[in-house]
Amino acid sequence: MGTSFKILMAILGVLSAMNMIISYNQKPSKVRTFGVWFNGIALAFIAVALIIDLVMN
């Protein structure tokens, strides 16, 4: 994949990490737990996509 893919994944990774930190600092609730899990999974998928991209090239 091209440079634009890596830039887009980096931007999405930073946004996901920031959102996960913001969710983690909120008052404990079910919505907070969902936000932390959802952003953690998104961050993991972004990392997997970047690793696959590195292996393919």
Describe the structure.
The chain is mainly α and 57 residues long. 86% of the residues lie in helices and 0% in strands. It is built from two helices and no strands. It has helices spanning 3-24, 30-56. Helix 1 runs antiparallel to helix 2 (30-56). The longest helix has 27 residues, at 30-56. The radius of gyration is 13 Å and the shape is elongated. The N and C termini lie close together (8 Å). The model has no long low-confidence stretch (mean pLDDT 89).
State the main characteristics.
single chain; 57 residues; mainly alpha; 2 helices; 86% helix; elongated
Summarize this, please?
The protein has helices at residues 3-24, 30-56. It has 57 residues and is mostly helical.
Radius of gyration: 13 Å
Low-pLDDT stretches are none
Please describe the biggest sheet, giving its number of strands, its sense, and whether it closes into a barrel: none
Kindly estimate the percentage of residues that lie in beta strands according to DSSP. under 5%
Shape: elongated
Oligomer: single chain
Indicate the mean pLDDT.
Answer: 89
Range of helix content: over 70%
Number of strands: 0
Order of helices and strands: HH
End-to-end separation in angstroms reads: 8 Å
Number of helices: 2
Tell me the structural class: mainly alpha
